[in-house]
Every structure is written in C-alpha cells, then in structure tokens.
Design a protein that fits this description.
about 130 residues; about 20% strand; 5 helices; alpha/beta
Length: about 130
C-alpha cells in the first residue's frame, strides 16, 4: 500500500491590512485569493471583519462555497471597529489569544499587504513555527 505524504490544506489563515492599500492590484489579488481558496476547497481563517482586503478575500471565498472563520477580540465587537465578518465569528479575550487561536486553526498561512501589525503577525508565526 502506498502512503501519500501530501498534506491537505483545509484551513488557510490569511493576514492583511485593514485598508485596500494604495495599489489596485492588492484588491484584485485579494479577490483572486478568495477564489483560489474556494476552488481548492480550503476554508478561510482570518482576524474577522469586512474592512479592506479581508472583505475581498472572505466574500470571494464564500461566493465559491467556502466557510470563513473570523477570530475577533471582544473589544473590537463592542464598537463595531472592523465591520461584519462574512461567516462565523469566534471571540478571543485578547489580541494574543486571537493569534494563538489562528495558529491552532490554520494549516497554512498567507500574508497580504499590510502595515506594521501585519508584519508583526508574520514574524510571530515564523518564530513560533
């Protein structure tokens, strides 16, 4: 019997900026990423909300039949700072807890354009791996 060493990437965690960015290609790439996730059968794990690039990724993923799980710090939901997540939301007590949960749920990680916070998440993921 032949055993496959290919790992199925069912849940892809995406980090991104809260804006659309300065280049229109960021939005197109975010839409394409959501489409590719849908076509590959991968669900999206993200930090939740609908603002900026994540709205593009999550909407495209849902349109292509995939699920979205947004992990949102409780403080963000009280004042509606991030918009409505296109999918299920899971609350986290702190920003650190959110990142830990994203690490637990994600099979792989993708980073889209963003700012210092996005870079911080990238470095944390790499250093924890």
């Amino acid at each position: 019997m032949k055993v496959s060493s290919v790992r199925t990437l069912e849940k892809i965690c995406v980090f991104y900026g809260e804006t659309y960015g300065k280049d229109e290609s960021y939005v197109k790439t975010a839409h394409k990423l959501g489409e590719v996730l849908g076509k590959r059968g991968s669900n999206l794990i993200c930090k939740g909300g609908s603002l900026g690039l994540i709205g593009c990724v999550s909407t495209a993923a849902v349109v292509h039949g995939r699920r979205v799980l947004g992990i949102v710090p409780s403080a963000f939901t009280k004042k509606n700072l991030i918009g409505k997540t296109c999918g299920k939301e899971l609350r986290a007590a702190t920003m650190h807890e959110r990142l830990v949960k994203m690490m637990e749920f994600g099979d792989a990680f993708i980073v889209l354009p963003g700012g210092f916070c996005t870079l911080d998440k990238l470095f944390q993921i790499v250093s924890w791996a």
